[in-house]
Amino acid sequence: MALDRLLNVARKEFSDQITSRRFIIILALFLAISAIGIHTGIENYNTLLDSYNQQLQYMQDSEAPYAGWMPEKPSIMLVFSAMMSYMVSLGSVLAIATGFDLVSREKETRSLKTLLSHPVYRDEIINGKALGGIAALGFAMVLALAISFAMLLIFSIVPTVEESLAILVFGAVSLLFLLGYFAVALTMSTVAPESGSALIYTLVIFVLVSSLIPILGMAIGNVFVGDPPQPPQSTPMVVRSDGGGGYFTSTSSQSVVHVGADDPAWQQYEEDRKRYVQRQALVYDISYILSPQMNYAVVSMAVTNPRVAPMISSPYTYDYTQVSTAETPGLADALAQVWKNLAALIVFPSVFFAAAYVKFMRMDIR
Amino acid sequence: MIKTENLTKVYNGKPAVDGLNLEVGTGEIFGFLGPNGAGKSTTILMLTGMIEPTAGRCFVDGIEVANDPLAVKRIIGYLPEDVGFYGNLTGEQNLDYFARFYDMNAADRKERIAELLRLVHLDGVTQKAGEYSRGMKQRLGLAQALINDPKVLFLDEPTANLDPEGVREYRDLVTRLAGEGKTVFVSSHILSEVRAVCRTVGLLAAGRLVAQGTIDEVARTLASPGGETFRIVVETAEDLPDLSDPDIIEFERDGNRAIIQAKSDIRERLAAAIAEEGLHIREIRLEEPDIEDAFMALYRG
């Protein structure tokens, strides 16, 4: 019976959401822009595929043994990279619009008191509301994925089983990201006396976690770790064309290799530099982990482009000399490499759902 | 049917309801009177299981509300003050949503909702509840309170938004429901409204029950704060002599007319004493205190 009551609340909330003008308008925009993004992604994919086919043709036609990098077939998942940015902007708006007045509207219209006079527990109401909102966002995500699948098929691109699985995982990760802001909006809707305030509080948190905390994290990180160690002045610097040995940096114009790996001053400098980067990375990671945008970007990049997963999971400590030699990890390995961000994507909405639950249970309904 | 034992609710250190002891019998129409802020709505919220008491207990049909609020909610109906609905749904859809919380199948729900909408004259209304007038919302509120055919009905300021015709229909309905054996608990600050339908009343002031009983009993209690007294008016054809009776508290005489304050209704004994004196009685009656004045005095202060 308890499940019946919860589902009764959830069904009504879901129905209210998908029939509300606000949700429909934002969803339509979201789907339209996603479709445009997918279309752009498909064009890019086709260009890369053409280039790949040309390289294969060149290899076949070449009489001399091929000495360059082996060409790699582009992944369909590149198409979904384009969806990420729309998910972050319009998806967040959709999630906030779904949750910011779920409870506050009931307080304003006094329907909450009427509802509570019937045999239903408070936790069933708040859980039902959350479930209804999640279902509505899930519905939006299913529509977006269905449209993207349809577009792939229209352009004669048939995903493999692995790619289909990756697309579903991308959808699940995107939904997880949307749940973060939905949970924030739901909490604010429970805390605020009316919907206007709930929306403002939600937007403040949105700006805080999406922009302010990462920026502040970088600033604090720089202050915390101090000035970077300076390289020794005595050692000569020589430009080399090969990539072997020594400390490697790169600019857009040339590669510079500091020859002097045996020099104790350089060894000390490299040690100091490594510690400095690790300390800086730690502070950055802590601030980034609080931002759903950052976590979503990292996890979805790992899903859509597993090759870069280790790079984006530890951008400050990754050994970039391995890029060309490392094997592309599978989807599970790629996700394992970004587990902290994935965990943060799960923890963030959980914390806010818990806050909404506690506040709703203690709410004064006079 | 309804019973409270030292029921107390404290908000921010201030008692909204303070040690309330109340009893309402089955089939009674009980008026819960008191000025705004007296604690009436808070009491109802505790009785309907929507908030928990800080101390004390309350029972509805023998069920302790705090122990099993859901069991209580299944047998009660509640019309809140300034009742609210889902503005995006029609009256019928609102009722259907609430009806789904009870063990009612689709056919039962449909039949019950149609019956209730007819009862409150909202059948055939297709507009959304958000477009309802306040009176229409109040009538829909009454329908939602009756959705589960409750044993006990709690009505908080039920006539606040009704027009005179609506008020008359509400009174008829409440009387009919009581006739069916339902207990009706009407909370109001309007004395005339409570007087029109209620057989017994409880009077709440500053969270405390000041008096309980019939309207007249409560009025007498209010008129004599030191304990219930009776005010008897006597008029004779001749001048009145001094009259003595152990229950007489005060005797005010003006020629052939006297106003007597007594501990009990001693009209028969007074009549006998006057007759023994050989006087002719023109009038001997119990003067009811002015109930409106008594309530107004309480409201003021």
Automatic annotation (TrEMBL), chain A:
Q: Which residues form the signal peptide?
A: none
The record's GO CC annotations read: plasma membrane
Pfam families with a match to the protein in the record: ABC2_membrane_2 (PF12679)
Keyword annotations for this protein? Answer: Membrane, Transmembrane, Transmembrane helix
Q: Where are the transmembrane segments?
A: 21-42, 76-103, 131-158, 164-186, 198-225, 338-358
Top-level taxon of origin: Archaea
Give GO MF terms, alphabetically.
Answer: ABC-type transporter activity
Q: What is this protein called?
A: ABC transporter permease subunit
